Amino acid sequence: MKTTYKLLLLIILNLIFSNSYSQSENLILGTWIKTDLKSNSKDVNEFTNFLKYTFKPSGKFYLSTSPKDLGIESDYNIEDKTLQLKFNTQQILKLDKDSLIIQDSNKKGALTTLYFIKEDAYIKNTLTPNDFFLKDKDTIYFENALLSPTFKNKHYKNDHDFIKHHVKHNTKDQEAYSYATFIIDTTNQVSDINILHHISKKYDQDVVEAIKKTNGMWSLPTINGKKVPVLKTWSMLYYKMPNVNGMGSKSNNVTVVTSKAEKFNKRYTLFFIEAVKQYLKTNYKSALNLFQRSENLTSDKLNAKIQIANCYKSLHDNEAYNNIKTIIEKSQLDYVMDK
Q: Where in the sequence is the signal peptide annotated (predicted)?
């Protein structure tokens, strides 16, 4: 009788520990973002910035210091409250569906405690009103490091290369800049394609068709476990090739010539892109100011003028809108304005 009782007790204890182990394995799955760090060591600079842990059902673990990258791969295993990694062993102080607390120690005995929350919760906690806009009754999120759709195509490493491959452009030795936005909805389809910085009618059409080809090639980020629509952008800057005669620096008897943007430099594009965001958020006066600042930074003012005209139209300043419309209709970008 005693033997049977002991055997039954062992079976029950084994089930309890097995169930606890299984729960830990399941709870830890997914991506965790560091929110805090406490240490009695000064040698933890590598952990002070962004840190991401990802646990896969396959037993693979990934450590990354970049929001966009999956990171360095390792195997992992959980035994009791110990997280065993290829490079070290860490103690799990707390693990539930919302939080993960891990303690790490080095050879000198210094202790570092890392506090994590699930990626979804982290994104939700860090979002600000500047990270999204309303379209009809839908909330559309601007793409950023944490809310970034994943492009899936076995022949191209990213969407930029895919779209670029399907767009043909003869620069005619002139600097040119293209900027487009489009929405990826929760069915991974693209919509609302807008060319906001134009090169030519044919080029714009090619960009639109190339973006349409990405339908179904996206995997959206989630908030609270639900997919969210994201506004994606695409841009391409073509440089004017310099005359290499008598130019450049010598390196191993090779002339090195560096091209740089003159009409559409970094300040111009930064103002332009932020202006687009403000316009989408219906902050038309702010957008107008930023587009005007872009216009003042370039000798090629047509694209900025088009967006300035759109701001005036949204602000119901018909006189200012029509004045700019007349200028655009006499230019090579006349196809852009409403007829």
A: 1-22
Q: Record the tokens describing residue 114, joined without a space.
A: 């890392």
E strands, the chain, where?
Answer: 30-39, 52-55, 60-64, 72-79, 82-85, 89-95, 99-105, 111-118, 132-135, 138-142, 150-151, 176-184, 190-197, 218-219, 222-223, 226-227, 230-238, 249-251, 254-256
CATH architecture of 127-245: 2-Layer Sandwich (3.30)
| Contacts with 14 (C-beta within 8 Å, 6 or more apart), sequence order | none
Q: In this predicted model, what pLDDT tens digit does every residue of 64-94 receive, in sequence order?
A: 988 878 889 999 998 888 898 887 889 999 9
pTM, two decimals, is 0.76
Q: Which of 150, 126, 131 is nearest to 69 (CA)?
A: 150
User: Are β-strands 230-238 and 138-142 bridged in parallel, bridged antiparallel, or unpaired?
Assistant: parallel
Q: What is the pLDDT of residue 261?
A: 73
The overall average pLDDT reported for the chain is 85
Residue range(s) occupied by CATH 3.30.1150 in the chain: 127-245
Instruction: Report CA Rg, the chain.
Output: 27
